[in-house]
Design brief:
Blueprint (H helix, E strand, L loop, with lengths): L12 H21 L30 E9 L5 H21 L3 E8 L4 E9 L4 H15 L13 H9 L10 E9 L8 H13 L4 E7 L3 H6 L1 H4 L1 H11 L4 E3 L4 H10 L2
Parallel strand pairs: 1-2, 1-4, 4-5, 5-6
Antiparallel strand pairs: 2-3
Helix pairs in contact: 2-3, 2-9, 4-5, 5-8
């Protein structure tokens, strides 16, 4: 008869395997969770460095400015005239923000004559500027459009009237602008005279310019020979006047403000 084994076995092989498996699972969890433990450091925190935002230079310089609108006042300009009427005060407000001393004038020309005009009026902040702005607004509101039989208009007459205003003998410290708004060129016999006038007017100061906003209909500019001649004339006038030429502008007031601000 075989002798009975009296040794006491506390853990058999299966129990040891189970224990090792459990420890292995715990180690895996520790490794996975270790990046999320709060880290502490005995080193002193880095000092906070204040970063100062650099000051931006003014994009728009404050300067004295004179501005005269020379505008076609024939029947085809009804929408444009209404836009200028409604936007005139907004233009004055912008001028007050970019200029310490601003003056505005207005000329309305028709087929072969100047219909109405306003000389250069000071429109700065204050009672006098407000009064002049109202006077200018009343003149623009009072323009009654006139019809005509031929295509060209008296752009030359409008420029003559604007050039005759009291711009000041010394314009070196002022920015002076004429902005022509129309959809037709001047009469053929006045083309060269108007270009010469523009050249003479800007020659007295490097800060003078004549810019053009051509409001002509895009279809007419292609199908109508007289209308097609408008763009080349206006482009040449802007070139002689050291100004800008814009056409087919859906936002007339925005275009005028671009001419005033962007330079």
């Amino acid at each position: 008869m075989q002798r009975r084994n009296r040794d006491i076995t506390i853990f058999n092989l299966s129990a040891i395997d189970l224990f090792c498996s459990g420890m292995g699972a715990i180690m895996v969890l520790m490794v996975l969770l270790m990046p999320y433990y709060k880290k502490t450091s005995s080193t002193k925190p880095s000092p906070i460095v204040e970063v100062k935002t650099p000051q931006k230079s003014n994009a728009i310089q404050v300067e004295d400015i004179d501005l005269v609108f020379v505008m076609d006042a024939t029947m085809s300009m009804q929408d444009e005239l209404e836009t200028v009427r409604n936007g005139l005060r907004s233009i004055v407000q912008v001028l007050r923000r970019i200029s310490d001393d601003a003056r505005v004038g207005f000329v309305a020309y028709i087929d072969r004559d100047v219909l109405s005009s306003s000389p250069l009026l000071e429109v700065n902040r204050g009672a006098q500027g407000d009064s002049n702005t109202e006077r200018l607004q009343k003149i623009v509101n009072g323009v009654e459009l006139v019809g005509n039989l031929d295509w060209p208009e008296d752009v030359y007459g409008g420029l003559q009237k604007a050039a005759s205003f009291s711009w000041g003998a010394d314009a070196s410290n002022r920015r002076q602008m004429i902005v022509v708004i129309g959809d037709a060129s001047t009469h053929p016999e006045h083309v060269e005279a108007s270009l010469s006038l523009a050249n003479r007017w800007i020659s007295s100061s490097s800060r003078r310019s004549i810019s053009i906003v051509n409001t002509g209909n895009a279809v007419d500019m292609v199908t109508n020979p007289e209308s097609a001649a408008t763009a080349p004339y206006f482009k040449e006038l802007a070139s002689k006047g050291h100004g800008s030429y814009l056409e087919k502008q859906s936002d007339l007031i925005g275009s005028i403000l671009d001419l005033i601000i962007v330079r």
